[in-house]
Amino acid sequence: MRIATWNINSLKVRLPQLLDWLPAAQPDVICLQELKLEDAKFPRDEIAAAGYRAAFSGQKTYNGVAILSRSEPVDTFAGIPGFADEQKRVLAATIDGVRMVCLYAPNGQAVGSEKYEYKLRWYAALREWLADEMLGHPDLAVLGDLNVAPEDRDVHDPKAWEGQVLVSEPEREAFRSLLALGFKDSFRLFEQPEKSFSWWDYRMLAFRRNAGLRIDHILLSPSLAARCTACTIDKAPRKLERPSDHTPVIAELR
DNA sequence: ATGGCTACGATCCGTAGA
């Protein structure tokens, strides 16, 4: 089973790239973030024609998440139970017996800002929910734009980024609190190239300079981690004309 | 140098992303 995550930064703009990527990458499941469109505008026909079912939770302009899958997604649920939130950032579905949680974590804007506090509250609620979810679903995968670079090696210039949003210690602690539930960062289960990133700023020729961060992740419960044979970042879509600033992350489960 | 791109919805600039 091949599972993937990709923040596509507007499904409307990136739909042609997605439709090219699906047959090339052949994922069984792909979690998408930043759809930036309401559910009525979700391109259900194009996705179906590509051979994928879809569950989605969209909103106009901002946020929005979807799970595309070869098999029918069941028991879909949007949001974090008990955490009232207008922002569509969370979607869960079970596919072929594996519970998938698609996440678009808040950006946090700046350390100490209101949005930063919201991000930490969101993570606290997420942790509580995932702890519960893991009890009922031993085969649990969390995929998405988590908006945290967990370690210095996930940052192109750790000195420049020290203490900044996406990298700050409270955010990293929030990320580690998920690992403390038993999740593995699938990317780090394997030998990886130095300076592997999943996001590059549109500005400053950041991609060409590989000035990026690794903030898109696939976390696997212990039973799934034991089945994982590879995790890779697919940089190809970032090289296209008019790319998303994020690029897909893919994990293989036997 | 705190900028620099990009998407969006409202204009011809502001908000947000990361």
| SS field, number of helical segments | 6
Q: Would you report the number of β strands? A: 14
Structural class: alpha+beta
Biggest sheet details: 6 strands, mixed
Overall shape: it is globular
Rg from Cα? 17 Å
User: Low-confidence parts lasting 5 or more residues at pLDDT below 50?
Assistant: none
Mean pLDDT: 97
Query: Order of SSEs, N→C?
Result: EHEHEEEEEHEHHEEEEHEE
Helix content: 10-25%
* Strand ordering within the main sheet: 3-4-2-1-14-13
- Approximate strand percentage: 25-35%
Distance from N terminus to C terminus (CA atoms, Å) equals 6 Å
Give your account of this protein's structure:
This protein is α+β, with helices and mostly antiparallel strands. The mean pLDDT is 97. 25% of the residues lie in helices and 26% in strands. The structure holds one DNA strand of 18 nucleotides.
Annotation keywords:
single chain; 254 residues; alpha+beta; six-stranded mixed β-sheet; 6 helices; 14 strands; globular; DNA-binding
